[in-house]
Amino acid sequence: MTRHPKRPSAVRAAAVLAIATVLGGAFVTPAHADPAGPAAAAPVAQGEDWAVTPAAGGYDVTLDLDAPLPVRAAAPVLVVDGQEIGVARTSLDQRQVSVTTTDPAVARASDVALAWTSDVDASAPAATEQAVAPQAAPTDAPAPIDADPAAAGPYAVARADYDLGDQAVRLRGLGGRKGEMRAAVYVPEGATGKRPVVVFLHGRHEACVGGTPTDAGWPCGRGQTDIPSHLGYDAAGNALASNGYVVVSISANAVNALDGTYADDGGALARGQLVLDHLDLLRRADAGQEPRLSPLLVGRLDLDDVGLMGHSRGGDGVVRAALLNQQRPAPFGIRAVMPLAPTDFGRMTLPDTDTAVVLPYCDGDVSDLQGQHFFDDSRTSYGDDVLRASILVMGANHNFFNTTWTPGKYPLASSDDWWDDADAVCGPEAEHTTRLSADAQSAVGASLVSGFFRLTLGDEQQFLPYFDGSGRKPAALGTADIRVSASLPGAGRRDLALFESAAAGVTTTGQVTAVTCASVTDVESRPALPACVSSSSNAPDFTPAWLAPAVPATPSLHVAPTRTPTGGQVHVAVPASRGDLSGLSALSVRIAPDDTSRTNADVSLSVRDAAGHVATQRLADVSRAGQRLPGTRNAPRKTLLQQAQVPLAAFAGVDLTAVREVTVDVPSGNGGVLLSDLSALPASSLGAPRVVDRPTVRIADRVVDEGSRRGTVRAAVVLSRPAERSTTAYFDLAEAYDDHVVPTMRRVTFRPGEQCRTVAVPVLGDRRASSDRTTDYPMTVSNTRGGAVLGDVTGTLTVREDDGVVDERGRVLASAPAVGKAGDACAEALAAPTTVRATSATVQRGKRVTLVSSGFRVGESVSFRVDGRQVGRATADGQGRAAFAWSVSRSSTTGPRAVTVSGAGSLRTGSGTVTVRK
Description:
The protein is mainly β. Helix content is 10%, strand content 32%. Strands 9, 10, 13, 14, 17, 18, 19, 20, 21 and 22 form a ten-stranded mixed β-sheet that branches. Strands 45, 46, 47, 48, 49, 50, 51 and 52 form an eight-stranded mixed β-sheet that branches. Strands 23, 25, 26, 28, 31 and 33 form a six-stranded antiparallel β-sheet that branches. A hairpin with a 5-residue loop joins strand 51 (895-903) and strand 52. Helix 1 (234-242) runs parallel beside helix 6 (438-456) and helix 3 crosses helix 4 (313-326).
């Protein structure tokens, strides 16, 4: 997410709707019945279409809309008096948006507006330039690929579509709501044996249009059209199927209709699980155990050779699906994933999977190209042996990869997401626009999707140069401008300097400085490294993520000229033990002019051997990586690290068996330059993708009293099992806008054998009553490296008001249930469920029985429920034991009754049974 708390956000679309209900609600006291909650509070600030209302834990800021909010991949954000206050929830009718915030400044609001998580500031310095001249191709441009991956193959294509209904599956992470199980299935007729399977997942788009919406949001209401987004990838589906692959393009309209209201992660978990639900269905169909599906699928599906393509928020979804799959007892063989114009809200890393991220330069929806993080974050995180590619498609927008979203190809809810028709770079009506036509973009999409999966699943090696960063593309694409940066498999790659941290072997000479940097300016907590670029720039490698706004993004080396810009050099020493490069193919570096540069990064690479011989190669002769990308006043140019590869054979006269130094020469006249990933590359390959069962990492919820002075709360970051190797993850609690909790971001490291680590979060207590029973602060975990992958990415720190609760008139209200004395955070997070026992195994109707449970915090309130209904509370004693006398109604049903307990502070749960007799 592009978060700019110090500046107004650009607003380029209509606003979204928020949930009309107030968060929180009344908390119960230690009694047998819960008191009623207070009446709805009056607004403390309001305008014609917005209001700020006191709510549990802060304020609800709501914005009403004249028309339904456009459904798009980016998430809606509310901006109060020029400052973003958070990602908004949407009402089911898409006519209201709301944010609950702890920021007291909103109580004095004079204006509330809508923005989006991917908005880029049109006042940025880089935006004050007119479009740059057409970019010259390098003098040593590689030859195109003769093979066309999207060409029809030898097989006719049969369809085996299925539709099991609109509420056929429970959607994970959406509060128990159900969604459709519907797919278009493309099958190669006459192909023998089991065939590789490719699953397509469309992105966030209108689910239902026209007619009368339902109050539930899904299914579609009377007279509404269910938009068939899953039918928008016909070209790629037919191309793959005609070449022997089974393609299953699934519908996710229920998720699109519900995720803005119910999901805490943008719907990634729901989409990922939906993919696996379809694969489970297909597994049964392949085994002949699913009569609802076509017999064409029986015995035809190789579910050990699976690829996933996800468009827009579907990109987040397919990465999540691959991670969830790795945690299953019997996983599918997901070998390759392609996020296409994706969101990356949670900074997920994906190991052991061939990955290609497609970034459309003229994306008007996910305009910050945040999906670049899927490449950046995973490329060196696991030491795995797979191919990863970042593919920049010049002139492509967000929508036209899907024909259902394209005007002229589908009549309803289709649009060009680019906002300025006359923009010199991306406007379709500009005289010298770079924009691709709808047909040309569709052809590029079909080529990329088909080529990638034919390569990764079918081992069709003729397409490897398309994705390995060598600069070759199919001749069939003509003048389409496609730029690929690749991280080749780690087993053969020799990283000389990643530039992720300061290193003794990296030095400078001349009039330049070189500083390790990360992210953008103005992150919410104290940054670990200086910023690489301004927060107002459009820099995909460095843009913050919605769910991890303060986590360092793509540490790199920022090389800048001094006041006397006569040029300089960055020297990377190569130890003798790593200096034999004779068996390798090329030198590679990722490079970009920084966001303030007015010139291309015209640099050279030099190689020096042990005898002092030096050979130099100018990067511009072999690559466009150092060129400034185009931009205009209305659409700032993007600052994106791109790869330049120089064949080692070009360094004539140097002994490649004894290389001792590689130098990046930055001549005079250059502006600032960003560097990453100086590596010696092997011959290209796919490596060895595999499915590996790694521990998952999660953030545990934590509930504490506010306290009366400055203190520390320990939050637990937990692995699903002890670490088998060193593992890191990032903890982020950034959205704390009041004076009680200090924003905190920390890197968390697990040593082998450890399962839980804690992060200290400063809390500033007081002795004053307030109007909030509790205040919630979102916590996230992200960007795992080493030995674990992401599990539950979100958690909540809840701070209970322990000095009394009063309303705006000074009337005393009931406090939240007591949370007790907080115990060790890891012990509570790892505690197994406890048990509930009754003093008598059976109880007669009309009598009482005491229910007892233990293992709670001293002094915490424990809720007792029978068959899901709360019957009362008890306070845990000095040994953590809670007992409650349950009076059984004379009309109670007889037989076994399920008893459950939960602690208000420890959150520990337990269960048991008691039998009621006549």
